[in-house]
Amino acid sequence: MMRDSVSSDCVMYDCAPPLSEITPPGQALPAKACDTHFHVFGPAAIFPYAADRPYTPPDAPFEQLLALHRKLGFERGVIVHPGCHGTDLSVTLDALRRGAGRYRAVVLLDADTDEARIAELDRLGVRGVRFNFVSHLANAGWEELSAIVPRIAPFGWHVCIHSDQASLGGLLPKLRTLPVPFVLDHMGRVAAAAGPSSEEFQAVLALRDHPRAWVKISGIDRTSSSGVRPFSDGEPLVAALLEAMSERLLWGTDWPHPNVRGEMPDDGELLNTFLRLCPDPLVRQRILVDNPHQLYRFAD
Question: What's the pTM value of the predicted model, to 2 decimals?
């Protein structure tokens, strides 16, 4: 497999592309609804992938993202800078510029990033730093996280944590000690087969009592033990979170779904699942609009 930092014409992909056709949303979203988890890939001819990237996806450029958000009804979003671009933030900063205030971002940073650079990124719309603790994506360890926290704290940033069931138990006690907010991606990636009563997921639900903890309802396919759409075995996890801590939940598509192991998710189907499980319009407003507005500091 080719791993050089070259244009997309020469790259052998190890990720499938997202679906070209998706299910329409069953209901309109509230104004200023925010998709808080997705990626922008390339185009590699303009924004080359990193030579040491952990995976090689096909291009999923900003124009394609905008088309998805128009279909689903999202007016805002949060770009999660992807590992395939490493710590070169060009693709994400370009998307922020073109988004004209509608988007925010969470990025990967080198451990020695100084406060002047953080201040510049904050002005451009960055609001957090992501750390991958999933073994095949690990980009840094706890020492790197601890070192950068004092530098991001003055800017109101958070740390975004991509964990899995194997790493979650060791991370949660440490995360609770941080002086900055933290966000668990993909519901902590506790396996759906374990269920909401499992020790691992009960530890996630216990975050309801921690004022700086946030959880993303995203990646239901990544928690699914079947890998088969619509990933209904993950629904009890979503339902338990909605009941426990809606005031600190976020929702995201995870588009364009890199490294999926089962069927490719249908983003409209994912959204409809959330809307069905969360029928209360006030709770939807909280999760899709109010919570992102607070955490990512949108202008209005």
Answer: 0.95
